[in-house]
Amino acid sequence: MSRGAVELVRIAMQAYGQGDYEIALALADPLLRWDERPAYPDGDLVWGHDEVLRFLRRHDAEWEEYEFRLEELIDASDRVIAVYRERGWGLEGVPIDERHASVWTVEDGKIVACSIYLTK
Fold first, then answer.
1. Cβ-count burial 38-67 (b if 16+ within 10 Å, e if not)
2. pLDDT, tens only, 54-88
3. Whole-angstrom Cα distance, residue 16 to residue 38?
4. What is the three-class DSSP state of 108?
């Protein structure tokens, strides 16, 4: 991956963490593939800006309070790995503190895929 791809993912992750999904999606291919199945047995696989945006807004609705921190970006040759932490309070008043890794694929200057994992 190039430094440009790593910076593209950094911008997308920062936008994601702030809830600015439209900014993150502007950096993505219209047929973006978003896959949370590696992290969750009942996780979703969604395709395209509209479906990903719907999914992310549903994710937002599950939090009463939300804090996001990008911890690390790793240039992994043909992909970028982002390690991040999400913490806060769920709607039922349950504290949530989760650390994840996401694997991003960038082609021709656009994000084409993102998969979420429980560990780096």
1. ebeeeebebebbeebbebbeebeeebeebe
2. 999 998 888 999 999 999 999 998 899 999 999 99
3. 19
4. coil
Q: Quick check: 37 and 45 in contact, CB under 8 A?
A: yes
Q: What distance in Å separates the CA atoms of residue 53 and residue 70, rounded to the nearest whole number?
A: 20
**3-state helix/strand/coil string of 79-102:** CEEEEEEEEEEECCCCEEEEEEEE
Q: What is the CA radius of gyration of the chain?
A: 14
The CB density around residue 24, as the number of other CB atoms within 10 Å, is 24
Beta bridge partner(s), residue 50: none
